[in-house]
Amino acid sequence: MGQPVTGQPRVVIVGAGPAGVRCAQTLLAAGISPIVIDESRRDGGQIYRRQPENFGRPYAKLYGTEAARAEDLHTTFERLRPKIDYRPNTLAWNVAERKLHLVHEGHASALPYDALILCPGATDRLMPVKGWQFAGTYSLGASQIALKSQAVSIGRKVVFMGSGPLLYLVANQYVQAGAQVAAVLDTSKFAQRLRALPKLLARPDVLKKGAALVSSLKKAGVSVVNGIEPLEIVGTDADGVQGVTYRDASGREQRIVCDAVALGYHLRPETQLADLARCAFRFDEPTRQWLPQIDELGRSSQAGVYLAGDGVRVLGADGAELAGRLAAYAALSDLGHTIDASTLDELKRQQQKMDRFRLGLVEAFPWPAAQAARLSDDTVVCRCEGITVGELRRVTRDEGACEANRAKAFSRVGMGRCQGRYCGHAAAEIIADAAGVPVEMVGRLRGQAPVKPLSIATVEEVE
Amino acid sequence: MNGRFIRLGETGRKTVAIRVDGKDVEALAGDTLLVAMLCSVDHVRQSEFGNEVRAGFCLMGACQDCWVWTAEGERLRACTTVVSEGLQIVTTQAEAQWANL
């Protein structure tokens, strides 16, 4: 293991979630053994994240209605493992001159590739709220990871706040696991979900599962409130979160006592490696963000670089599996393999349905862009370095920093240790509002290497 | 406050002893360092830029909010580190790293 068979092209996949695993499987079936780089200790990605080996909860308990899909993905990967070069605990931190730069247990190395398929997944998309820096505020994804991979709740009494299907899924998983859910507070309005129905009907089975999640929460006696505006996560510097205040749909201020908040507005793709590989980006109007440009198979604007899964466009796990297969076929085709046209057509047809459903979700649970203008000046926008919305507005208005990277240089918003992952999208909205320009004109934070902080003790290996 | 996180299952695992700022903390095999710490204490570090304590945020290795240090000065990301017997953690970075010029 480790060296590709002489004469075989070297195909490198980043990520071992739904997209990466299906991609590897498709390549192997065509006779190409890929190298699979994954930052995690175990395969599965986030949504099908595996619990540690000494945990005993069954698939049905961990993954609910998606148990069969999760198990199939995991067993598929177990079958692939002996036949591929799988490198867990390995961070891909840069792409330059057709080499992928890696670090594994403090040792850095460069891996040349003939084809690079990026399946890096997504993180939570966040809009700040006053007080979100207090201990006990977690991203929505974090609250799910705590339960799924560690069997813990993030607090004694948890509020789920934000928007998106994950809000209802995780709140349900908490209820079923015996945690106390104080409330589910959704910024989207019920009417928006009704309007999105025609698009959501592209996947009626998923729509039905979603509706079941909401009704099971209500049956469990959990308060589910639509059309709210978050006002503040109330807490203290020393003790963290103590409650949440919000404005309800009729304009009244409400307060809920809790010691933990799971906050999130759907997901944002991890696009840094695509950016470093110099892939072209386009503005995605429905989600108000810049995304890498791909063709219908996942080819980027750079020859030999392919993008799949939630790391390029958030389609969810099923869409990621399809995208992984499609990207593998694109790479195989570009490497001179013949691909069965009817197989491709069927995958593309399914993927179009996934995209229609994606647009339905965006309409049903919209990114709350308008909140940015109403955030108070003393709200923290950058959690890493405690920089306020007021400071970002000041550099925009007084120093003319109307572009994301310039505003970052002046204010340090986006320069902290998360590298703009959790403030970048909200910062763009705040800048756009303060400058009075459309958000696409603010641009996007450029991906910077290393895409995550490296230890100063990292040792470079020369191949 | 004692712990921040609440265990909801998988409690039959064998225990692993670690120390945090000189105090004994009982973890379970398979715990991440962040979970082990937050089942006993309510934060993992002090913000360098504000007055508030911090307890992690993303749990997936993306936000870097849960950095802690070993007694030897090695930086660990608590949410992606698995606990091991005898691990000694300090929640403040050793000042000795800055030369006193």
UniProtKB/TrEMBL annotation, chain A:
Keyword Oxidoreductase: yes
Protein's UniProt keywords contain Oxidoreductase: yes
InterPro entries per record: BFD-like_2Fe2S-bd_dom, BFD-like_2Fe2S-bd_dom_sf, FAD/NAD-bd_sf, FAD/NAD-binding_dom, Metab_Enz_Cyan_OpOx_G3PDH, Opine_Oxase_asu/HCN_bsu
Domain FAD/NAD(P)-binding residue range list: 10-312
Keywords associated with the record: Oxidoreductase
Taxonomic superkingdom: Bacteria
Domain BFD-like [2Fe-2S]-binding: 380-432
Entry-linked Pfam families: Fer2_BFD (PF04324), Pyr_redox_2 (PF07992)
GO molecular function: oxidoreductase activity
CDD domains: GlpA-like_Fer2_BFD-like (cd19946)
Protein name per its UniProtKB record: NADPH-dependent 2,4-dienoyl-CoA reductase, sulfur reductase
Species lineage: Bacteria, Pseudomonadati, Pseudomonadota, Betaproteobacteria, Burkholderiales
TrEMBL record, chain B:
Keyword Oxidoreductase found: yes
Keywords recorded for this protein, A-Z: Oxidoreductase
Gene3D superfamilies: 2Fe-2S iron-sulphur cluster binding domain, sarcosine oxidase, alpha subunit, N-terminal domain (3.10.20.440)
InterPro entries to which the protein is assigned, alphabetical: 2Fe-2S-bd_N (IPR042204), 2Fe-2S_ferredoxin-like_sf (IPR036010)
Pfam families, per database record: Fer2_4
Domain of life: Bacteria
Gene Ontology molecular function: iron-sulfur cluster binding; oxidoreductase activity
Annotated protein name in UniProt: 2Fe-2S iron-sulfur cluster binding domain-containing protein
